[in-house]
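Thread: "does anyone have the structure for this chain?"

Original post by V.I.:
We have the sequence but no experimental structure in hand. Need at least a predicted one for the grant figures.
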Amino acid sequence: MEASASSPRWGLLQRIAAAYGKMMLNPTYRVLVLLLGAPVHIFVYFYYWRERKSDPYLLALEDTKQELLASGYHDSLIEDIRDQQIRKHQFFQEQIEPQTLERQVAAIAASQFQAEAHEQTMARLRQHSQQRLTYAAAFQQLLESPLFVAISLVPGALMYVLILIFGSPYLKYIVERLLMSVFVIFGVAFLVFSILYISPMNPAANILGETATAEQIESFNQLYGLDQPYLVQLGNTLKGIATFDLGKSFAGNEEVTTAIAGKFPVTLTLTLISLIMAIIIALPIGIISAVKPNSVYDYTFMFIALLGLSIPSFWQGLVFILNFSIKLHWLPATYNPQNWLSIIMPTIVLGTGLTAAVARMTRSSTLEVINEDYIITAKAKGLSKRQILRKHAVGNALIPIITVIGLQFGGMLGGSAVTEKVFNISGIGSYIVDKQFIPDIPSIMGGVIYTAITISLINVVIDILYAFFDPRIRSKMKQY
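Reply from O.Q.:
Generated one for you, tokens below.
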């Protein structure tokens, strides 16, 4: 029994059919749908050829061709094309056989005749409010049938999941960016592995030492597959990344995944705390500087921000250790997971640059926004400064600020090695630095991949925040 046209189930089927129709207009999604729903498409293909016999387009096309033939259009077309071809060959002073000329004329006339018949047929269908039965249209008709969807649900499960994702603009937006992140991660892995492969350093000689014999070095290379061709090693590395099996490190023969799992959370925690600190401090400072430009507050805050951008992190860390640890004895000089005070100085050092960058961007972005016409209109309506900032200015000013935060966070996560070395933090940054001088390829690849995954996920969150704060992006998401 067919579902009622007003029932929720019928509405869902119509949305699925509409989403399928849009997907068939996109070459990439069209291929994915055909591959994921291959068993279903085989059945639909036979259904389409059966229904194609009653296609109004084909019936009208035959009538149109007969009318064109009866009107003498075809004969007139051949004469015109023959005359054009003769004049063309005469102009270029070319000799052509009569049989060759007739073949050319027949081919061109057939093509133009078919095109004219098609145009007139489509015009006739539009005049009678009829449509051509295409494969996509036949599939859409079947998708509106609950019985067909129920029967094809199991063999076409992946296809229906893809259609539902495509039908939801927000979900499609997120999934596409996650897939892009996967390509970025494997691209980073390929680039890093290639650089390590062509590196002149010899891992076996560096680990075994100068006294190692040629037989020992050869045995080491065989054990870790370093004697295999480049493509084989690259394939094994990418396979390990895909299966989350990063193998064992050259030095220490420890599981890379286990080693990184113990070090990466330390770096991530340090970076996140620095990020939160930077946002809490920088946003109010930037907004105050923008609201009161060229004031004492503005000059003071921006001077401090300029200092924050100019101070090298390693020098700042050493100054902090010298003053707050050695002289004042307020804070521990090195990081200790059991003592929460030990994370204060590394957090400040790592977050100083981000705080300065976000503060300066907040000021410039807010200054640009508060001079827009809609802000002037809001002032004319009698809204207070606080209401204008909260409802109109801050939300629009956050869009470029989010970009800076995302880029700076990636830089902090990847460049935390200096801070970790200064404060003796056993994090992912110092881990990669220590391993790259061997070079310990599995360990470096593992650290880089963990960092790339985190940065990619952060970028996905940034993209989602764009859509949340910018209504223009939300409207584009619904359109495409």
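V.I.: this helps a lot. DSSP finds 23 helices and no strands in the chain.
O.Q.: and The longest helix spans residues 256-291.
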